[in-house]
Design goal:
The complex is a heterodimer of chains A (about 200) and B (about 375).
Chain A (H helix, E strand, L loop, with lengths): L11 H9 L5 E5 L5 H10 L2 E6 L2 H9 L4 E3 L14 E7 L8 H11 E9 L4 H8 L24 H10 L2 E10 L2 E2 L4 H4 L2 E8 L1
Parallel strand pairs in A: 1-2, 1-4, 2-3, 4-5
Antiparallel strand pairs in A: 5-8, 6-7, 6-8
Chain B lengths: L12 E5 L3 E2 L5 E2 L2 E8 L9 E5 L26 E2 L4 E2 L4 E5 L14 E2 L4 E2 L9 H14 L7 E5 L1 H12 L6 E5 L7 H15 L17 H15 L2 H7 L17 H14 L4 H13 L10 H4 L6 E7 L7 H13 L4 E6 L13 H12 L15
Parallel strand pairs in B: 5-8, 5-11, 6-7, 11-12, 12-13, 13-14
Antiparallel strand pairs in B: 1-4, 2-3, 4-8, 9-10
Helix pairs in contact in B: 1-2, 3-4, 3-7, 4-6
Classes of the chains: A alpha/beta (about 200), B alpha/beta (about 375).
Chain lengths: ~200, ~375
């Protein structure tokens, strides 16, 4: 049982997600890891939450801490979930590692009334700088070498804006953060983590 | 697992019931016995009871040994004991032999009080629903209002599911392992072949073989051999036996390959210890179970009244009760916004995996069970005491 959870104990992106989730609502967290986000939302907003996770160790961690978790591979879609059966579906920093990127976003929109997608902004100036210097970017948010990275579909904020436009997805809100602080000036250049609150148009 | 976390020497007990049990078939069992074993201690408010439901060939002897030199412990001994995943320091565990069985509970081979002869063909065909009703009476007998958990694999998982449906207020957690919400046509087809092997054995005598002093061994043996093929995965059979030859090829129909030797051994062992009439009835209970049937095939509706929290588990190589079937249960529970977790355990051993002490599988069960509270009743709307 988590009591008196202090928002500052958690990541800034969690705090923003919490602002986009309604009290007592039903949340599906895709790629939920050890269930941290769901636990945070449960203790702060009394949500009814379910996580989806592929990894055995993460699944076990969820069961240990009492998070509802469904073991399945997101690449296969969300076939076990009914249309519009969740208030919010979250995909936190997993989009870039998906092969079926387009499919999962459309599946999220099918299952959730609103969806939250977050991803590392490839347009961040440090990434651009490393490319200009002739190397693939390696950073805190992209900690992998080119040969061992799970990230196969990296994109910039402009790319994702265009994706939403082309797929009739309404951007309800967008926040961009760097080192835990919000960035409003030149976000595609200065923002490290992009966070989108979306719904089908 | 070492010997020192065994539940130790155990002994079965028998409960006799005089209140007639109305069966789904319309028949009535006017009186019957249920044989059971318990491990651990029932706590003061009787909130730590866990019921183990057995599968096709299981029984009440789930853990421990009958004597110091007993070679084999109970069938799920790797799970149950002090410090084991189902910890008997915390839980009071109940195993029983289902009605129609052949290990002490009333069944085809026990005495029919109305005729003074063995029941044989006259013993009714019971369903999963009937079993669960009889299990509820055993709990009444033990003074237990509500189970902390009901656990079952395969056919046992169907009973755990049925508990959550039929006695929603009496189950806090249901653990449904390597199971299905009903059998597929292919799965029922295996059962039919098994039954035909028994029924067409010349020594079956329409189920009344006891009075002829014979048993349909050959049929039961073939039924069991078939079963064993379906409980293993192709990979495990390949790994265990492959095309290994027993001695030298003799160009005969004797045992030539290791796999044949294994199947014959398993078949013989089973045919010498299990009752064919029980086998017929157990497979029928599997075939008939279909809680969605009364709801136009809508499993979500069938599970809409459940109140338990669920852990559903399947094994990747299990093709007799495939992960897809477990996911159907999970989907229906999600539709009802039930509290549910689902694990798809990577395992090579096919359907048999649910009885194996795989480290990850047992870690999941250990974690889930350790989170179950036993000091108060969480749903407790049926607190009759």
């Amino acid at each position: 049982m988590q009591n008196n959870v202090n928002i500052t104990d958690f990541r800034q992106d969690f705090a923003i997600i919490a602002n986009w989730v309604k009290f007592g609502s039903k949340v599906l967290d895709l790629g939920c890891g050890d269930g941290q986000l769901l636990q945070f939302l449960r203790s702060s907003l009394e949500i009814k939450g379910y996580g989806v996770e592929k990894d055995d160790a993460n699944l076990l961690a969820c069961i240990q801490n009492g998070t509802n978790v469904i073991q399945m591979d997101l690449e296969d879609g969300l076939s076990g979930f009914e249309d519009q059966s969740f208030d919010t579906v979250v995909l936190s920093q997993t989009l870039q590692a998906m092969h079926n990127t387009e499919k999962i976003v459309l599946e999220m929109l099918r299952v959730g009334q609103e969806i939250i997608v977050t991803f590392p902004n490839f347009g961040y100036w440090r990434n651009r700088w490393q490319i200009t210097a002739g190397r693939m970017p390696v950073s805190k948010t992209l900690p992998y070498q080119w040969y061992d990275t799970p990230n196969v579909h990296l994109c910039t904020i402009h790319d994702f804006d265009a994706f939403c436009h082309n797929h009739q997805i309404e951007i309800i809100e967008r926040k961009v953060i760097t080192d835990g602080k919000e960035v409003s000036f030149m976000p595609n250049m200065l923002g490290n983590l992009a966070m989108y609150r979306l719904k089908a148009r | 697992m070492s010997e020192n976390n065994s539940v130790g020497i155990v002994a079965p007990e028998t409960a006799h019931f005089n209140v007639p049990l109305k069966l789904k078939s319309g028949q009535v069992l006017s009186q019957y016995d249920l044989v059971y074993e318990t491990y651990g201690t029932l706590n003061a408010d009787k909130s730590n009871a866990v019921l183990i439901c057995h599968a096709l060939s299981g029984n009440h002897h789930v853990a421990g040994k009958y004597s110091e030199d007993d070679r084999y412990p109970g069938w799920w001994d790797n799970l149950i004991g002090p410090g084991k995943p189902l910890d008997t320091n915390k839980f009071f565990v109940i195993g029983l032999n289902n009605l129609g069985g052949c290990h002490g509970s009333s069944g085809p081979s026990s005495m029919n009080p109305e005729t003074g002869k063995q029941w044989g063909s006259l013993f009714p065909i019971l369903t999963v629903e009937d079993w669960v009703n009889s299990q509820a009476r055993l709990l009444d007998h033990l003074g237990i209002t509500q189970l902390a958990a009901v656990i079952g694999g395969s056919l046992g998982g169907m009973q755990a599911l049925q508990w959550s449906i039929a006695y929603a207020d009496r189950v806090r957690h249901a653990l449904i392992i390597a199971s299905a919400p009903n059998l597929t046509a292919q799965n029922m087809a295996f059962n039919e072949v098994a039954r035909q092997a028994i029924i067409t054995d010349p020594e079956f005598h329409n189920g009344d073989y006891y009075e002829h002093g014979v048993v349909p061994r050959r049929g039961l043996r073939i039924a069991r051999m078939l079963g064993h093929i379906t409980y293993l995965s192709d990979d495990v059979m390949g790994e265990k036996f492959g095309r290994k030859i027993k001695d030298t090829i003799k160009y005969s129909f004797d045992v030539e390959f290791e796999m044949e030797s294994y199947l014959r051994y398993q078949g013989d062992k089973f045919a010498g210890s299990f009752d064919a009439n029980t086998y017929l009835r157990m497979t029928r209970a599997l075939d008939y179970y279909d809680p969605a049937l009364a709801f136009d095939g809508d499993l979500s509706k069938a599970l809409s009244q459940t109140k338990a929290e669920f852990l559903v588990l399947s094994f990747t190589s299990d093709w007799r009760f495939s992960p897809a079937r477990s996911r159907e249960i999970v989907k229906a529970l999600l539709d009802n916004e039930s509290t549910v977790s689902y694990a798809e355990v990577t395992a090579a051993h096919g359907h048999d995996a649910f009885l194996m002490p795989d480290a990850h599988y047992h870690a999941i069960l250990r974690s889930y069970l350790s989170n179950i509270q036993t000091d108060n009743n969480q749903i407790g709307s049926n607190h009759a005491e």
